[in-house]
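Usage

Read records sequentially. Each one opens with the input sequence:
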Amino acid sequence: MPAAEDQITAEAPSAPAADTTPAADTTPAANTAPDSKSATQGWTVRQLAFALFIALLTIYHFNGTVMEEGDPVPNLKLPVTLLKRGELTFAPEDFPEMFEFKSSPPLAEMDAYPVQRWSDVLDDKTMEEWRASGALRLNGPRYHLLESQVRRTYVSTFGPIPGITFVPLTAVLRWIRPGYDQDYLLQIAAGKLHGSLLTAGTAVLLFLTALHYLKDRWKALILAAVFGVATCAWSVQSQNVWQQTVSTFFLSVGIFCFVRYPERAWPQVLAGFALGTATACRHTGALLLVCVFAYMVIYHRRSALFMALGAVPVPVAIAVYNWYFFGSPFSFGQELVGHETALEKTGSPDLWQTPFFRGAAGLLFSPSRGLLVFSPFFVLVPFGLYKIFRDPQYRALRPVCVGSLAIMVLQCKWFDWWGGWTYGYRPWLDAVPVLMLCLVPMFGWVTTGRVRPAVLGVAVAWATFVQFVGAFTYDKFWNERTLYMVQLPGNPQSQSYLDPDDAEAVAHDSNGTYLGPTKCNIDVIHCRYRLWSLSDNIIGYYLKHFNVARAHRIRARWLTLLRQP
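and closes with the structure output:
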């Protein structure tokens, strides 16, 4: 990636003639020349980028805790099996925590008895000895693994790409700490480090891409900083090795190279490679890749060939992976297990069953998932899109916006549009850097006067506060919180209350029956109304239970690197 400061700041996008473009449209690009004296005098682009990276990395680790999440587990474990055995598969003998075991007496009878390590001791027996005695029998993998019927082994539901990106850091940590393979808490902490590095890197790429249009280093820096702390990039993306963490980084690499160097061969090879890798990681990325490639064919045909050369290898490798394990290059793990999961969550095996407007309304306005609830400044995106498609200087952003909007539309149709157990709008994380770029044309307008900057400041402050709450307290408990049920006379439907005292008082005053506590999981149909509840919203819950929820989180275990295993 060309990195010289003069390359980043000196090349301007082609601007329309002065008599054909309204003055308001060109304000963001014309306010400050890149070499003019300003508040950034003395700071080079590289220095600002590095400062942004270090600042965000520090913020992401400032909470001092990590959370065990289900989806990233294979991504944390795959480097171990790859470096240890040279394989992309998982076996219950090596990773019992990734499987379910049916237990029988004298153990408590369960279909999913928890086993973390075979060496763990229970009643003077190791878990391996309990297994040998027949009290523990394999009952299949957890949801994040699926069985390859072709190879009779187990692989990640979410594909190998996120875990492969984690291999270099894992190799270093295994060398520093020989007991790394058995220290799951350290693996979670390392996963957070990897996720935070990729997310801070995404912010830097956004800074450099925005600078291409804004021509003002401070404005571009502010835009990137807002992405870093006022979106779910902080509370979710940076805290673990999610699919979205990896795919968003590669999408940002591809967009930067595509926008900045459309006529250069090697940057377009890198753009193709990055967009192809993002597609291999989350195949919805193909929508953005297709849009960008079509644009290159129309406007930069020679460079399109180089982009195509870069885009091919990783998707082809994943196609071979799919063929080897699933029997078809077009079979993906999430699709194969998705039908069963959809049936369990919704009663229908259809993967794309959600009515578009319901999914869109949820991901925009749900009190516990809505983009405009968690990051309300994105309300400016439609106005930015209007300017992008009106002003020729933003032409290169058009295919990026179309591809990202297509990804967002597709996520609205997915059977669990709410993204399962999470904080905020995780299903749309891939598109967030592009949504930030949609704000670029609005920067001049929104930062002039007194009222508009004040309103924007309040929106960004609220969004940052919400992300702070999530990063410091999210413990998954809200997703299956305890509700207190009351049966009212003449009403066949029981009523739920958040407080047991309230429930008992209502039961007493109405001559109803207090039924007691029950768990209410948002993935269960009859509990999904909670996604729309104002009184039971996830932000309010963690504000109310801040200290308790924070205590549930796991302290980062970096000090163990200094001790012998």
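Summary fields computed downstream for this record:
- The CA atoms of residues 141 and 474 lie 26 Å apart.
- The chain has a mean pLDDT of 91.
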